[in-house]
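Q: What would this chain look like folded?
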Amino acid sequence: MINAVEFIHPIDRERLHGTGDPCDPRHDFSPEVQGLIDELSAMLRAAKTSDEAFELLVDHLGPLLPFDRIAFSVIDPATQTLAANRLLSNHPVVWHSEGVHLDWGSSLGPLMSEGAIRIIHDLKHYQRLRPSSEATRALLQEGMRSSLAVPLYHDGEPLGFLFLTSAAPEAYTTQHAGVAIALAPVMGQALGKPPEEL
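A: My prediction, written as structure tokens:
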């Protein structure tokens, strides 16, 4: 039986892809996958605002990292809490938390400090392990069953997280984690840009 949750560090890239240089972000993706990574990276670098960057992820990330729900949350440096910034879901949303601060003392703190990717393979199983998690309970109510959390940095400083969630259990693999590791630097730089002016 697969573990409910898995943590994958960037230095583990060699484990994700077999053999070779773990520091090479282009290592061992298929030409098709690498082409999609390169194309999306170029679009994100050209994005002028964080709003444009998020729209690009909504429109182009799916073939690389599947999702039924995508959310970007930012760290408030003054309070060291996490607040939802943008969200799009194919399901009715129970947990949105726009402007609501979340508990930074959760499992997300170590992810940000270590730069690790978190895959929750089965949210139902994970809820049994962490019954106090309100976010997990709400995601299950929305019909979500697995998730991938990607810590993001802007100019070397912690920015926040991109959360991808699927209605299917075990939707995310170590290959997906490798893609997330490859895209995380450019996603962080793009999502850390100023929003569109009203």
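The radius of gyration is 16 Å.
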